[in-house]
Each structure stands twice: as C-alpha cells, then as structure tokens.
Amino acid sequence: xxxxxxSLFLSVREGDSSVINCTYTDSSSTYLYWYKQEPGAxxxxxxxxxxxxxxxxDQRLTVLxxxxxxxxxxxxxxxxxxxxxxxxxxxxLPGFGNEKLTFGTGTRLTIIP
Amino acid sequence: DVKVTQSSRYLVKRTGEKVFLExxxxxxxxxxxxxxxxxxxxxxxxxxxxDVKMKEKGDIPEGYSVSREKKERFSxxxxxxxxxxxxxxxxxxxxxxxxxxxxxxxxxVL
Lengths: 113, 110
What we know:
- The complex is a heterodimer of chains A (113) and B (110).
- Chain A is 0% helix and 55% strand.
- Chain A has no helices and 11 strands.
- In chain A, strands 2, 4, 5, 9, 10 and 11 form a 6-stranded mixed beta sheet that branches.
- Chain A starts with a strand and ends with a strand.
- In chain A, 35% of the residues are buried.
- Chain B is mainly β and 110 residues long.
- In chain B, the strands form 2 sheets. In chain B, strands 2, 4, 5, 6, 9, 10 and 11 form a 7-stranded mixed beta sheet that branches. In chain B, strands 1-3-8-7 form a 4-stranded antiparallel beta sheet, with no helix packed on it.
- The relative contact order of chain B is 0.33.
C-alpha cells in the first residue's frame, strides 16, 4: 500500500540550512514532489524529481532521493523567515490514476530569528 | 496566472444540513480533485474527476459526493453534514502530479 511519512515539526535558525525528510513505502513511485503551504493558503508546488534521478537542485532548494531506502529530502539553504510554512512530500504511482498524489502528513517549519 | 477559486473561505453549518463546496479553475485542466486536510493527517483525497461527468472515489469518499457538469467546475457535496466532517477542504486541478490548489474552505459543522 501507499504510505508517506514525515516528521511533524522542524525548527531552524534564520540563515541555517533546513533539511526536511520523507519516507515512502511504494517502490513503484514514478515522481516525488515537494509542496509548500503558507499560512491561510493552499499548497503550491516547489519542485519534483523523477524516480530515476538521485538529486535535483533549483536555486536554494536541493532534493535528494535515495531509492534503495525510499527516502526523500528537501534542503533549503540560507533559510529565511519567508520559508516558514508546512512542507508536504507526495508521490505518484504508474498506471491509470497516476494523476493522484499521495501526500505525507506535512512538516511545519518554524524559523527562529 | 493560474487560478483555482473556492467559493467560500469559511463556512459554518449545522448537523444534518446539505453542504455544497464549489471550485472553479481557469486552466482548462481535465483533472480536478477534492481533499480534506486535518492536522497530523496531511491531505487525504476524497474524490477526483478526470473529465466532465466522470468521477472516481479517493481514499475517504464516505459521506461525500461530487458533481462535474462543466470542465471548469467541480463541486463537493456533503449530503448530511456531521461534526466529524469539520475540516479544511482543498480543491485542486492539474496534470500528472502537478496540481494547483485553491486557498481552501474551512468548514465547521456544529
């Protein structure tokens, strides 16, 4: 079955790097995603990685994928107060209905000034 | 700019009422989704639709139904609202995991 797990909370000092972790159980995942939810808003896509890649970098964001351990991480360099949000990892599976996303529980990132 | 609009930000309803949550997208997407978001549980898929008049059950469809009469509009219906349906409801549209979300409707059932 599908299960995506994350820690619920993370606190980081402003200027440090944040690392948000996620584990998933279905090895047939095709794409893995990171979404961000700011207070009072819906989710917005931050980045995604195809399952045959092991790293993707986009400005301050680095995604690492360890397929053997089914572990995904999102690193945010030089964390700013505007990065305070809930971060969700999500996966899609192959086949019909692969438009469906299975989300993790979300990690609330708090920035300490 | 991409837009998914949910008709209400906040709703308060009484137990047993019929509740309609409306969602409109302007991106001509075929796929639309309804989720509920609860603390510690993340987002759970209620229903999705991949075409007009088509619908598929998600992970938690009990107590809900949906309607998609036009491509841009996807409605979530609570036939008889109950207190355990108090939650944040999020609508999305998109393709292959890239989904665009509305701002959400916070529903309280008293």
